[in-house]
Write a structure and sequence with these properties.
This protein has helices at residues 4-20, 36-39, 44-53, 58-67, 72-94, 126-141, 150-164, 199-207, 230-234, 237-242, 306-311, 357-371, 401-427; strands at 108-109, 116-117, 178-185, 211-214, 217-226, 251-257, 263-266, 268-270, 272-274, 285-287, 299-301, 319-322, 325-328, 336-338, 347-350, 380-385. With 428 residues, the protein is α/β, with parallel strands linked by helices. The longest helix has 27 residues, at 401-427. The radius of gyration is 24 Å and the shape is globular.
């Protein structure tokens, strides 16, 4: 039989060990690996984009700041501060404030020894995208001494995404100034060409916080950028960002990159996911998943003044009122393309903007508009920009004069389209 003293000693050791062990509710787990999207960051092109834009200092400085955190609460404050700072830095750069590139940037020799590479033009959206991935990868793989559990890590990643995308920086002024909300997207199809830029994201950076002059007076534009990831949309990122603001704005438009050589104002949006791989190389096919699926319409429509937009002279690219959809007719089984929009009782297979995330953000935003009872009072919908193309023969360089000119012209035309939409809407 064990003596009382020994038994008490064993019990004390057990209690002490138990006090040190994390409870199940706060148990730390091994840090996950970088995502598919984050793994692209180490390739040569992203590193060149970061270097030539001066944004190569973002992730290292963030890592140092996060490494100094002594608690989860302190870490969260750092993430909020640094995420917001990245968004403001990207906006400032796009709008001509602050240095165009880092003072530490080295001049890189071009292939063949001719000339030197210089910094990227200010209108470029790619530095924000790749710098953000450097920050999310750090949070995802971070293992602090005080430990973080899956819930805490997920919360840090969520707040980093929202702050660095401008989703928590939508600040409309008081008074009688009109308010316009515009959204863009990250670059995508990066495994096809990792150099890709997205002119909708570039437009968001160029227009954020700017004031446009309409026939009815000045209007403030606020913007945000969304990820090209199916799961983020299923988790409600669009609704969470837009719901507080749609009742307060006078016009909104979601924007994405669409077809070559043309703008499209998408007339109809469909409740269908077509499955094209996202930036994580994940596919999702089926009805768009939203809350309250019992009241899920197959189609939503734009309330933007599309006739006025198409009729106006807004830039060098033609603008179309795009009405085509793909549907399964009522009582049918096979998809049918309809040039003039859906027929009564049909099931969606593609909206005017297709069945990828551009169609889905348009569907979710206009469905939210309608659920808030704003269909008849709030102009809103989706605009597709032209595909941003490199100059002829450029298959390797991250930029060229034609590429920059195309992006600047698209941004300018987005601004003009928004101004026309505001003029037509605010007069009514």
């Amino acid at each position: 039989m064990t003596s009382l003293r020994v038994r008490i000693g064993v019990l004390g050791i057990a209690l002490f060990a138990g006090a040190l062990a994390p409870t199940s509710a706060h148990a730390t787990t091994a840090a996950p690996s970088p995502t598919v999207e984050e793994q692209r960051l180490d390739k040569a092109v992203p590193q060149e984009i970061l270097r030539r834009s001066g944004f190569d200092d973002v992730a290292p400085e963030f890592t140092r700041a996060l490494g100094g955190a002594h608690s989860y609460a302190q870490a969260r404050r750092i993430v909020v501060r640094e995420g917001s700072a990245l968004w403001r830095r990207a906006v400032d750069r796009a709008q001509g404030r602050g240095p165009a590139e880092s003072r530490r940037r080295e001049a890189l020799p071009l292939k063949g020894g001719g000339g030197r590479r210089v910094g990227l033009s200010r209108d470029d959206d790619r530095p924000l995208y790749w710098a953000r991935l450097g920050m999310t990868r750090e949070v995802r793989t971070w293992e602090p001494g005080f430990g973080v559990n899956d819930t805490q890590r997920g919360a840090l990643l969520d707040v980093l995404e929202r702050t660095s995308r401008g989703q928590r920086d939508l600040r409309f002024p008081g008074g009688h100034m009109k308010r316009i909300l515009l959204t863009g997207f990250d670059p995508f199809t990066l495994d096809r060409d990792i150099r890709i830029s997205n002119p909708s994201g570039a437009s968001a950076l160029a227009l954020d916080g700017t004031v446009i002059q309409t026939d009815e007076g000045p209007a403030r534009v606020e913007t945000a950028v969304f990820p090209v990831r199916w799961d983020d949309f299923e988790q409600g990122t669009v609704e969470r960002t837009l719901r507080p603001y749609l009742p307060k704005v006078d016009l909104f438009t979601t924007v994405s990159q669409g077809r070559i050589g043309r703008f499209d104002v998408e007339r109809t949006n469909g409740a269908w996911r077509g499955g094209y791989p996202d930036n994580e190389n994940l596919s999702r096919t089926g009805t768009v998943p939203v809350t309250d699926p019992a009241s899920l319409p197959q189609w939503t429509t734009t309330t933007l003044p599309y006739a006025a937009i198409v009729a106006a002279s807004t830039g060098r690219f033609p603008v179309y009122d795009h009405t085509e959809v793909t549907e399964i007719p009522a009582g049918g089984t096979d998809p049918v393309v309809r040039a003039d929009g859906p027929t009564a009782g049909s099931t969606a297979r593609a909206g005017g903007g297709g069945n990828y995330l551009s169609n889905e953000i348009a569907y979710r935003a206009t469905l939210l508009r309608d659920r808030l009872g704003l269909h008849d009072t709030l102009p809103g919908g989706h605009v597709h920009t032209p595909v941003l193309e490199f100059g002829a023969g450029n298959t390797t360089e991250v930029t060229d004069p034609d590429f920059v000119r195309n992006r600047v012209d698209i941004i300018d035309q987005v601004r003009a389209i928004v101004t026309v939409a505001a003029d037509a809407s605010f007069r009514d």
